[in-house]
């Protein structure tokens, strides 16, 4: 599985939101600048994640986006799913009925797919948050956050 730009940017944006104090709304421009994501592209991703119930939009001068749930309640799998990211290694593959090694390969990939899905839905945004905070502590608090 290779995480596409779409999936990578989505995780970066939500991790950025999770690092904000008191879950205050953050503008798309602020997130885009910190994470080096094109603003127009980020806006589209945030709209998709809002539809999936992962973020809320707040209107007004102090508006922006904030998490709709606690970071512990948002999994990496949910984030990827919300923006149409697929984690299937062989999405439409059907093994050849006449070749045993084809079925063995398919069986291995099928098992790996199940384990990968399980892992992605068990890693929360909170887990990543603590990983980032630990990294920041090691390199110094003044380190800027970029995933």
Chain-wise SSE layout:
Layout: H1 5-18, H2 28-35, H3 39-51, E1 55-58, E2 64-67, H4 76-82, H5 100-122, H6 125-139
Helix pairs in contact: 1-2, 1-3, 1-6
InterPro entries: Tscrpt_reg_Rrf2 (IPR000944), WH-like_DNA-bd_sf (IPR036388), WH_DNA-bd_sf (IPR036390)
GO cellular component, one term: cytosol
Protein name: RrF2 family transcriptional regulator
Tally of individual helices: 6
- Classified in CATH, the superfamily of the domain at 5-86 and 124-139 is Winged helix-like DNA-binding domain superfamily/Winged helix DNA-binding domain
In whole angstroms, the N-to-C terminal distance is 19 Å
In round numbers, the mean pLDDT is 86
Sequence of secondary-structure elements: HHHEEHHH
The number of distinct β-strands equals 2
Please state the overall shape, judged from the principal axes of the Cα atoms: elongated
Structural class: mainly alpha
- Largest sheet entry: 2 strands, antiparallel
What share of residues are in beta strands?
Answer: 5-15%
Give Rg in angstroms.
Answer: 18 Å
Stretches where pLDDT is under 50 for at least 5 consecutive residues are none
- Give the second-level CATH assignment, the architecture of the domain at 5-86 and 124-139: Orthogonal Bundle
Strand order of the largest sheet: 1-2
User: Mind telling me the CATH class of the domain at 5-86 and 124-139?
Assistant: Mainly Alpha
* Percent helix: 40-55%
CATH topology of the domain at 5-86 and 124-139: Arc Repressor Mutant, subunit A
């Amino acid at each position: 599985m290779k995480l596409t730009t779409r999936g990578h940017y989505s995780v970066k944006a939500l991790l950025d939101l999770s690092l904000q104090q008191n879950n205050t709304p953050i503008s798309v421009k602020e997130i885009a600048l910190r994470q080096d994501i094109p603003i127009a592209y980020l806006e589209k991703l945030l709209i998709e994640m809002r539809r999936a119930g992962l973020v809320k939009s707040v209107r007004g001068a102090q508006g922006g986006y904030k998490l709709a749930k606690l970071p512990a309640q948002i999994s990496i799998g949910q984030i990827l799913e919300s923006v149409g990211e697929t984690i299937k290694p062989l999405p439409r593959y059907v093994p050849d009925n006449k070749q045993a090694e084809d079925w063995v390969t398919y069986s291995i990939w099928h098992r790996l797919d199940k384990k990968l899905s399980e892992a992605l839905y068990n890693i929360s945004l909170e887990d990543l948050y603590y990983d980032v905070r630990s990294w920041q502590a090691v390199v110094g608090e003044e380190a800027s956050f970029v995933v």
